[in-house]
Amino acid sequence: MLGNVVRVAAVAASGGGGRLGSSAAGAMLTSRTFLKRTRAGAVVKVVREHYLRDDIPCGAAACRLCGARPAGAGLEARPAGAASHLCPGPHYLLPDTNLLLHQIDILEDPVIKNVIVLQTVLQEVRNRSAPVYKRVRDMIANPEKHFYSFTNEHHRETYIEQEQGENSNDRNDRAIRVAVKWYNEHLKKMKNEENIQVIFLTNDRNNKEKALEEGITAYTCEEYIKSLMANPDLVDRLACISDEGKEIESGKIFFPEHLPLSKLQQGIKSGIYLQGTYRASRDNYLEATVWVHGDAEENKEIIIQGLKHLNRAVHEDIVAVELLAKDEWVAPSSVVLQDDSQNEDDIENEEEKENILKASVNKNMLRPTGKVVGIIKRNWRPFCGMLSKSQIKEARRHLFTPADRRIPRIRIETRQADTLEGQRIIVAIDGWPRNSRYPNGHFVKNLGNAGDKETETEVLLLEHDVPHQPFSQAVLSFLPKMPWSITEKDMKYREDLRQLCVCSVDPPGCTDIDDALHCRELENGNLEVGVHIADVSHFIRPGNALDEESAKRGTTVYLCEKRIDMVPELLSSNLCSLRSNVDRLAFSCIWEMNHKAEILKTRFTKSVINSKASLTYAEAQMRIDSAGMNDDVTTSLRGLNKLAKILKKKRIDNGALTLSSPEVRFHMDSETHDPIDLQTKELKETNSMVEEFMLLANISVAQKIYDEFSEFALLRKHPAPPPSNYDILVKAAKSKNLEIKTDSAKALAESLDKAESPAFPYLNTLLRILTTRCMMQAVYFCSGMDNDFHHYGLASPIYTHFTSPIRRYADIIVHRLLAVAIGADSTYPELTDKHKLADLCKNLNYRHKMAQYAQRASVAFHTQLFFKTKGEVNEDAYILFVRKNAIVVLIPKYGLEGTVFFEEKDKTKPRLDYNSEVPSLTVEDTTFRIFDKVKVNIMLDASNIQHQKIRMVLVEPKIPGKDVPANPTTEASVSNEPEKKKKKLQK
Amino acid sequence: MASVVLSEAEKLYIVHGVQEDLRVDGRGCEDYRCAEVETDVVSNTSGSARAKLGHTDILVGVKAEMGTPKLEKPDEGYLEFFVDCSANATPEFEGRGGEELGTEIANTLYRIFSSESCVDLKSLCINPREHCWVLYVDVLLLECGGNLFDAISIAVKAALFNTRIPKVRVLEDEEGSKEIELSDDPYDCIRLNVDEVPCVVTLSKIGYRHVVDATLQEEACSLASLLISVTSKGALTCMKKVGKGSLDPESIFEMMETGKRVGKSLHTSLQKILDEEESLGTTRQKVGFLG
User: Fold this and answer.
1) Which residue has the higher pLDDT, A133 or B1?
2) What pLDDT sits at residue A944?
3) CA angle, residues A903, A906, A907, in degrees to nearest 5
4) For chain B, give me the number of helices (H) and strands (E)?
5) Cα separations in angstroms, B83 against A4, B60, B145
């Protein structure tokens, strides 16, 4: 306070001369005053100077009254727009805040043009939703749309002050109306042959009434869109926001009310409620877990069960949860439940299902259980999925089934259900009233026919948030100009290694070759081994658009028949790719080793190489094996292979794990690109040879950058799993009389090696698959932000990614760090900011996870395509998991995993007896245990295009009393998803 | 304090003039100089006023902040005074020069406002024992032209009249924890009742008579003054003698009577001006510091 007074006094003392200026500008300067509460609880009065101007242009192209023409497109002189029978004349649209927030999808349609976005509206949008704000900004920037943002708050004639008894919302509404009025009067003055009108769009009843009273043409969004004669289908994209008042009148109330935010915050502060991220269960629509934020030790994970307790929360929302009393706690159910009731308001059915969950609860498994009392932040995004057409003819309301099973079905209103049926569409949620079983939403976009490869690929990319748009011009502008060649300048910090006999070994068809190797004998008898990695960081300079885009993408995503590049193709497949017989820039890691593969010297350098051969694994293997070949490349390969074997043995002796997951490859038809055959990947010696040296390079680099930058090294760690993760593995092994030790990685590796059964050769692989599922996710992290560096799977104290900069952004950062460490490149501020690095790691981890999921979803989709052509087959399968009402089986031949259910709707339920200790499931008189061999019938169930899925039916052992093939008692839905966490492609 | 040096002849001239009820600037003994008052001059305060009395120029800002009530008065808010003697007023105030005077004035203000009826302190309580409004009254001396106390008290009263305290609501949940909610309408605020806020009338003894609102020159001729604070109803809330001379009891009574009389009319005209200004609302052309 005092400071201010003194400052004012100083102005007063020197104020004599300013008299003239102040009176002239007086009318153009006002101040905006508002009160706010600080965190500490104090009330602060904030005063901002607010300057008004009289030279803000109206944006209309035909206007000669406003001096300066605004930059950008502005509003068209003759707004053609869409013909509307409500307002046939030329008009501009002026939406209010809520309209912009809720109906953004419709405004983005190319039909809607010439819209005035007021500053008042824009600011409110910005405060309320960052994504919508961004979309509005994009539209304003788009010259095609003719959106104009009018700075009404600084315009002398449209600025208004808050009046007594008016809250800030009322004031903003009034400001909008004043601006509309001004526009109408202003445009009249234009003396144009045709008078352009400004149409005010608002869905707020009060505001519309007031506007009409003031003589403004106002419509609701619905009225206007419906009046558009040429585009009847736009109506579907209207968001259906019901008025708050309407809700209570009709229908039953399904859900308890959400508490207001202020109450929630109070409750969270006092500890009655817990705040967390809501994660719906993939297998059971009546169950979810909430991950509580903060570092509380207990009640970290809260189970929510039953529709009422889930209380309209949607996957990924931030919610407030109230814990239930201990006697109401439940255990996570192992029932698989899918929401497939057709009758949407059938609540009894739900209760019955909820009872299924509660039955047979093991007292030891009880976990903290709660109910959702309010939503802190919705995290709704547009969802991909398909329409489940209503059975009632001519109905307009239909249910939409999202592709992601964790998202509830959404009710939408559409008149084009017939055209949308069988199409993949995108739908956005608008709201979820208390009296509705499902959330309400609106149609956004049609992606194309379900089952089409393009559509499905698009869906899975969208669902996994994989950025897959073509690279923008801004990004491409940072590519080197072709023809490109190595210049003097490039050679300054580089060693010329072109004379070395370097070669690359990759899978067939690989165009983005990022590593090459060499090995030669030195004069002193030792071996020199070099790993040469594409020098991507030479082309991608920090901070430019190309760098930012790569950092955002994080990784290249490999789908079955498509590659979503992280960097533009010119780099990935040409300039950075270490192809044979061309000079390429590389980052080399060179060791001097003795014949026992002990490293004597390590050296890193930027270099120029010229690969002598690009080989496939098979070709390399053949060269090593054929005694007749003795050229330089082959000798080099033999040397490498010999060392790799020693290295691998050392690594395994150290306790590195050899894990297994069923990997499949599709043979594609060259014409149709349909999968015609499927085989599991085969590993050759050369695969492991390349892998060994990559690991070695990664470890060496990790050590080097950590030594140099102990705070800013980007490393990769793989935490040891908590012992409880292994329970299922130990139990499963025990059932086969085998012992798995899990106290250390080494013990685990050794016991896995010993776990062989002569009668059951596939058992070992099964055990290894199961072990893989027990593992934690490996993650990138910044060394300054963490102190556990250990890589459990590789049994290495330190690890990073260095060897694939073409397809992983982490490697680019590591390259930059290493380049700075050896003085080959200069540093930049972000590189040595551990918080920036930590943020980057977060994004990379997310992108990697999503890329992995997208990849699996792609495999799943191609598996379906495969079985579509293949028809029905009977195959051997092994039980991988036993659930309460189903078994999960793995078919080794296809690496395919699926669930076989033992219960079916409208059928007498077989007697099921689940024992969670073994675990085992007894159906009638047949008992199923983990690893049991069964025979299943696999076929593509295309009867329902909506739920195209692979059905698995148990063939052997037969369950008594059930005639299996004729009348399948077991329904299966299949997913080629090795992990539970994975998203489903199709439901 | 700022003072002027006068010759004996000058002093005599003033004293003789006062004797005849005719002062150097033409006023009578009970006349105030022309006073100028403007409120709401500092926008980021809760209330502010500037008062000019002849060459005396005072700026007062009132800032309402949330605090905890004093232990002995758990259901009341309180006022804090701080006086800053700017070196702009007189070079003597430079550095820590004005500190002593500032403290003296602040202490006097505390005494004047110590009377319970002055300001309704209970209305400043938000919830007993926990939250109350604390009004920080900051006085800034811009220019000293005699009769500081009177000018300050006028400015303080005007600033308190102008003070708008945001309305807050106390929300209480089942657990008993309290949350304070601020209204989002800036017009939604409480005003103070300033009817009982006293004004200071300083009576300076010059020769055998006393004058009100002495100029610097007159102050130089006075050996003792009596400072009394009077409410609008004429009640006396505090009295203080300043200056090195002495006063005999009889003249004290006389001076008190004059003070009450003058004080009452001072209050009336001040209140009239404030109400008039208030009625203009936002249409009022602000003068501020550049006028």
Assistant:
1) A133
2) 56
3) 55
4) 5, 14
5) 14, 9, 17
Q: Which two tokens stand for residue B95?
A: 């550095």
Inter-chain CB proximity A5 and B184 less than 8 Å = no
How far lies B152's CA from each of A207, A404, A626, B93, in Å?
Answer: 49, 72, 107, 17
Give the three-state DSSP class for A143. Answer: coil
User: Binning pLDDT at 50, 70 and 90, where does residue A815 land?
Assistant: very high
Lowest mean pLDDT among A238-242, A286-290, A456-460, B52-56: A238-242
| A35–B142 C-beta distance less than 8 A | no
Contact B138 A2 (CB under 8 A): yes
Contact A15 B290 (CB under 8 A): yes
Is the pLDDT at A411 greater than 90? The verdict is: no
- Tell me how far apart the alpha carbons of residues A200 and A115 are, in angstroms, rounded to a whole number: 10
What is the chain A residue with the closest CA to B285?
A: A26
Q: What is the pLDDT of residues A745-783, one digit of tens each?
A: 788 888 888 877 777 777 888 888 888 888 888 899 988
What pLDDT, on the 0 to 100 scale, is given for residue A968? Answer: 38
Amino acid letter at A982?
K
pLDDT at position A938: 83
Structure tokens at A869: 């052509």
Q: Where are the domains of chain B?
A: 26-281
Q: Could you tell me if A951 and A893 are in contact, meaning their C-beta atoms sit under 8 angstroms apart? A: no
- Cβ contact (<8 Å) for B59 and A45? no
Contacts of A956 (CB under 8 A, 6+ apart): A934, A935
**CA–CA gap between residue B236 and residue B263 (Å, rounded):** 10
Rounded Cα–Cα distance for residues B42 and B39 (Å): 8
If DSSP states are collapsed to H, E and C, what string results for A621-657?
A: HHHHHCCCCCCHHHHHHHHHHHHHHHHHHHHHHCCCC
Q: What is the ipTM of this complex?
A: 0.71
Question: To the nearest whole angstrom, how far is the Cα of A11 from the nearest Cα of chain B?
Answer: 8
Cβ–Cβ gap A9/B282 under 8 Å: no
User: Residue A515 in 3-state DSSP?
Assistant: strand
Distance CA A715, CA A817 (A): 11
Contact A965, A939 (CB under 8 A): no
Strand partners, A875: A936
Q: Who among A2, A19, A163 is closest to B84 (CB)?
A: A2
Residue bearing the bigger pLDDT, A414 or B110? B110
Peptide bond into B186 cis (omega under 30): no
The better pLDDT of the pair A60, A312 is held by A312
For residue B190, give the amino acid letter.
Answer: I
Q: How far is the alpha carbon of A121 from chain B, nearest alpha carbon, in Å?
A: 19
Looking at domain B26-281, which of 3.10.20.440, 2.60.120.260, 3.30.230.70, 3.40.50.620 is its CATH number? 3.30.230.70
* Interface contact A19-B88, CB threshold 8 A: no
b/e code A754-789 from CB counts within 10 Å (16+ = b): ebeeeeeeebbebbbbbbbbbbeebbbbbbbeeeeb
Can you tell me the distance from the alpha carbon of A413 to that of A225, in angstroms, rounded to the nearest whole number? 15
Give me the residue from A8, A16, A161 closest to B42, CB to CB. A8
* pLDDT tier for residue A963 given thresholds of 50, 70 and 90: very low
pTM of the predicted model, to two decimals?
0.60
Residues A418-425 have a mean pLDDT of 82
**B59 and A5: CB-CB below 8 Å?**
yes
Instruction: Identify the residue among A2, A5, A19 best suited for mutation to test binding to B, counting B beta carbons within 10 A and taking the highest.
Output: A5
User: In this model, does residue B270 exceed pLDDT 90?
Assistant: yes
B7 reaches A (C-beta below 8 A)? no
3-state secondary structure of B150: helix
Q: Which two tokens stand for residue A556?
A: 């290249």
Rounded Cα distance, A457 and A449, in Å? 11
